[in-house]
Amino acid sequence: MKELSATDLAWLAGLIDGEGCIRLNLIRERSCTPYLSIFMKHYETMKEVSQMTGGTLQERKPQKPHWSKTYGIQLTGDRARATVEAVRPYLRTKALEAWLLLEALAQSPKHTGNKDTLTDEDEALRVGYSLAIHAAKQVVNVN
User: Fold this and answer.
1) Per the CATH hierarchy, to which homologous superfamily does domain 6-136 belong?
2) For 38-72, what is each residue's pLDDT tens digit?
């Protein structure tokens, strides 16, 4: 991700709060990866997001006749982690999801490709964080 101003980070955080998805993808053989996506109808906005994050701009065709096509990015791995770390101070509605994702990555050992490198406790920790991130999506702020 390129160097962004505080204004750019706050703008990007607002898009993530409104249209983004933060999660920890659990992959077979006890691996996991951070994931961040943003999709919306406005092409120019998503083109700007793509340039800011280094993500590839994608187009999704409408699934129903009355829907519009959408544009977006999907970031995984180090790029997703770096983006979430950068925007975290500016997030509001997805701040908890971001914190949980970064905590999961800090607490979880790196996956080496060998399925036997993680203990059952490590795997339970990853699953627990993944479930907590999912549950955070259900939390409603009643201020």
Assistant:
1) Homing endonucleases (3.10.28.10)
2) 999 999 999 999 999 999 999 999 889 899 999 99
